[in-house]
Amino acid sequence: MYAITIPEPGGPEALVWDEVPDPVPGEGEVLVEVVAGAVNRADILQRQGFYDPPPGASPYPGLECSGRIVETGPGVSAWAVGDEVCALLAGGGYAEKVVVPAGQLLPVPEGVDLKSAAALPEVVCTVWSNVFMVAHLRPAETLLVHGGSSGIGTMAIQLAKAVGAKVAVTAGTKEKLDRCAELGADILINYREQDFVEEVRKATDGAGADVILDNMGAKYLDRNVQALAVNGRLAIIGMQGGLKGELNIAALLGKRGAISATSLRARPLSEKAAIVAAVREHVWPLLAAGHVHPVVDREIPMPDAAAAHRVVEESGHVGKVLLVAP
Ligand SMILES: NC(=O)c1ccc[n+]([C@@H]2O[C@H](COP(=O)([O-])OP(=O)(O)OC[C@H]3O[C@@H](n4cnc5c(N)ncnc54)[C@H](OP(=O)(O)O)[C@@H]3O)[C@@H](O)[C@H]2O)c1
């Protein structure tokens, strides 16, 4: 088969479409012929040499895909050859074929085409596990999503609205904020021109955000704590603004606040399977009912993954960039 390989870390040109051995499914795994993959920010870090795949994972990038099952390994009974699926991966989605643990497979949701389903697994699992399973966002609470027009952000807005929460977002341009509003965001904050702490307070009668989904890490740590409501929960999933920040413990204590931080990729198979099962139970019906949909910015042929990385690195997208297999 062919896959995007990274012979040497570097810029987008480091991504090379090359012939590689076919993967073979083991116990509890299936082989999926990939129809589409999708780009995640983590893939860029992997390409640059800053984010190695976890032990045992495929060396090729790609944390999600959609496609058809072409082979099942021993011990797989819930899935069959020919099933159309999408999958959460620890790697290997930028390839013509990928091996997937059965617990990380999802059926293509009703009302979603096979290609677009590739835009779902990573963002839905990340948002559901952090915002709902860890931070327990409840109806009528306020969620602040940083990077509202990102792959993650566009899904977070829709899921929070679907459960009846109020949503505030930050983004860097008016056009991106407009797209967030179309998805249901109620409070629109341009992070280049406005102070999100002040804007969130103003929009919540001084209360603040009950849950914050944060991609920035260190740079926003102090201001995120300031923007939290009493009993607020800050869920950190990214470090785009640095790794080490100073935490004002007194401020957090005064809020009776909580901070969580998780990474999906390195979680054990059992935890990923539990998240995938929760997503299938809670999110798949929302997709089938049309309350939530994948937001696809554009499709790029997989061998030209470098072009897709350029788009994402320049933040020229809203939602997800798909890589379509030849
Ligand atoms: N922990 C996990 O398991 C996990 C899983 C998936 C993703 N993530 C993380 O989630 C984040 C989003 O991932 P993605 O793939 O959806 O990324 P993406 O589509 O590339 O989006 C990145 C976003 O960062 C925003 N941004 C840049 N500077 C900002 C600032 N100062 N304030 C607020 N937002 C800012 C950009 O907004 P503009 O375009 O408006 O500038 C853009 O929306 C990344 O940090 C990623 O690493 C974590």
From TrEMBL:
The keyword Isomerase does not apply. InterPro entries: ADH-like_C, ADH-like_N, ER, GroES-like_sf, NAD(P)-bd_dom_sf, Quinone_OxRdtase_PIG3. The keyword Oxidoreductase applies. It comes from the Bacteria. Transmembrane segments: none annotated. Residues 10-323 form the Enoyl reductase (ER) domain. This is PIG3 family NAD(P)H quinone oxidoreductase. It comes from Streptomyces pseudovenezuelae.
